[in-house]
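Dear support,

I submitted the protein below through the web form. The confirmation email said the job was done, but the results page showed an empty box. After a refresh the structure appeared. I'm attaching both so you can tell me whether what I see now is the final result or a partial one.
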Amino acid sequence: MKQDDTSKQCQEILVELTRKMPLSAKVRRIFDMYETGRVLSMAGLRQLHPDVGEAGIWRLWARHHLGDELYEKAYGGFCDE
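What the results page shows now:
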């Protein structure tokens, strides 16, 4: 059984605040969360591949994020040089 670290009362407050939030603020939060995930993912790749430069880390992240097929369609061999 999953345990939540947030009480039911707190979750209800968060839901109500989110409902009242303007759409633009919700969209901004989504972009902020996406950016946080990207930064954390790239930090993990840096730890796994300490010998790879920033351009290589970006390529690893993009390939992992997009998948091989879409990465190849989007970038082909352009980014692998």
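Response: this is the final, complete result; the empty box was a page-load delay. The CA atoms of residues 37 and 43 lie 10 Å apart.
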